[in-house]
Write a structure and sequence with these properties.
It holds the Pfam family DUF951. The chain is mainly β. It is built from 1 helix and 8 strands. The radius of gyration is 12 Å and the shape is globular.
């Protein structure tokens, strides 16, 4: 089992929308918790990696759209 590779500057589309109506979040910080900023209103949140990985619908990275299953990296 691996983890989803998330990079700073990725735009994540989540399953549930933010109260402002946007489903897109820009990744600003990586670690055990992921820092994200709402693309529409600029609200900043920190989410645990486990919770975030379940909520991702797609990842937009440098002009390419990936499904979460395509971004999994195996860990040893």
């Amino acid at each position: 089992m691996g983890i989803i590779k998330i990079e700073v500057e990725d735009i994540l589309t989540l399953k549930k929308s933010h109260p402002c109506g946007s489903q897109q979040w820009k990744v600003t910080r990586i670690g055990a918790d992921i820092g994200m900023k709402c693309v529409k209103c600029g609200h900043f949140v920190m989410v645990s990696r486990q919770k975030l990985e379940k909520a991702i619908r797609e990842i937009n990275r440098k002009g390419h759209t990936l499904k979460p299953i395509d971004a999994i990296v195996e860990i040893e």
